[in-house]
Amino acid sequence: MDLLEKAVLNGEKANLEELIAAIPYAQFIGMKVEKKGSELTTLLPFSHDIIGNPMLPALHGGVIGAFLETTAMMQLIDISDGIYLPKTIDLTIDYLRSGKPKDTFARARVTKHGRRVANVHVEAWQDDKEKPIAAAHGHFLLKPSQDDNA
Amino acid sequence: MDAEQLKEAEEVIKSMLIDHVPHAKAIQMEVQKIEPAKAWLTIPYQDKLVGNPDTGVIHGGVITSLLDNASGIATQMALPERQSIATLDLRIDYMKPATPGEGLVGHAHCYKITKNIGFVRATAYHTTPEDPIATSVGTFMLAANRAVPMGNTAEAIAKTEALMKKANKRSGE
After folding, report:
1. What ipTM goes with this model?
2. Is A147's pLDDT higher than 70?
3. What residues 113-132 of chain A have any CB closer than 8 A to a CB of chain B?
4. By mean pLDDT, which of A3-7, A38-42, B27-31, B76-80 is the weakest?
């Protein structure tokens, strides 16, 4: 069965905990999702495998990027009744501070939700939400085209 | 940079990337080739890196890691001696999903170095850069961490590696 179909079966909306558990890469980096009220927060617990610079030490920029991208996708799925994973068109990441070896959190805001494309802004932080370690904005394709089943 | 220096840099960078970067090791990222201001990195296809279990397509985040790391190494390769660098920003454009079952190559070129900043373009592909999966542009801050001196001498390399080993232990290996 289709991953998102399965998640949607368990409720009116996609169950994001189940969805994230079904994405191998999200599991690999250890990503989790929490919804309190209408607010969605994602969590990236610290683990040895996500270190990019062992001397500082600092988290790998690629993992931070992946975390931001997945957070944006989760937010888009959460606000839509969609039964498909949004596809990333582009993503611009600003690295603001080095990621310390501790838990990282992120939240996304959908700046513009069009019919086919959505513009999303995401921020990740560790101790202080006012001091983000990275921010990203990206465009996501919402509906797969007719001839594209991927 | 002459052939011998290039060979030495290649060995150091391979060791830095594979043995000392836990995330690179975790996703089996490897340096395939380096040239002055250029780098080629690979990641083999692995089930754990899948982003969409319905299709088996690799997660975009893996491509981010590949392009970020390839860009960083290309910047290192554009510098007269190794120094600590940090990604300032990275923009990635996704052209098509990666083909399930196929490994990834990331090629980066640091086309301009100023006193403080390195400017880099990179492409991720399967077999040819003419058919890209994703492209990126990024900027890197040079001498991002002055507290850690890095040089290309054997002594400096040994010192760096000892520091890295210590740091690896500290971070729980």
Report:
1. 0.87
2. no
3. none
4. A3-7
Indicate whether A7 belongs to any domain.
Answer: yes
Interface of B with A in 115-144 (CB under 8 A): none
Q: What's the pLDDT at A70?
A: 96
Give per-residue burial for A63-92: e unless 16+ CB within 10 Å, then b. Answer: bbbbbbbbbbbbbbbbebebebbbbbbebb
| Distance from the B62 Cα atom to the nearest Cα atom in chain A, whole angstroms | 7
Indicate the pLDDT class of residue A12, thresholds 50, 70 and 90.
low
User: A76 to chain B, minimum CA–CA distance in Å?
Assistant: 16
pLDDT value at position B148?
45
Nearest C-alpha of chain A: how many angstroms from B153?
19
What is the C-alpha to C-alpha distance for residues B42 and B172, in angstroms, rounded to an integer?
26
- Would you state the structure tokens that stand for residue A59, as one six-digit string? 């988290």
Domains in chain A: how many in total?
Answer: 1
What is the CATH number for A130?
3.10.129.10
CB atoms within 10 A of CB B53: 14
pLDDT tops 90 at residue B134: yes
pLDDT in tens, B89-121: 999 999 999 999 999 999 999 999 999 999 999
Contact A54 B168 (CB under 8 A): yes
Q: Please, which residues 51-110 of chain A have a Cβ atom closer than 8 Å to chain B?
A: 51-57, 60-63, 65-67, 69-70, 85, 87-95, 98, 101
Asked if residue A18 has pLDDT above 60, the reply is yes
CATH of domain B3-160: 3.10.129.10
* CB-CB neighbors (< 8 A) of B160 in chain A: 55
Residue A21 included in any domain:
yes
Residues A134 and A94: their CA atoms lie apart, in Å, by 6
Helix axes B60-78, A61-79, angle to 10 degrees: 150
Mean pLDDT of the A112-126 span: 95
The answer to whether A42 and A32 are in contact (CB under 8 A) is yes
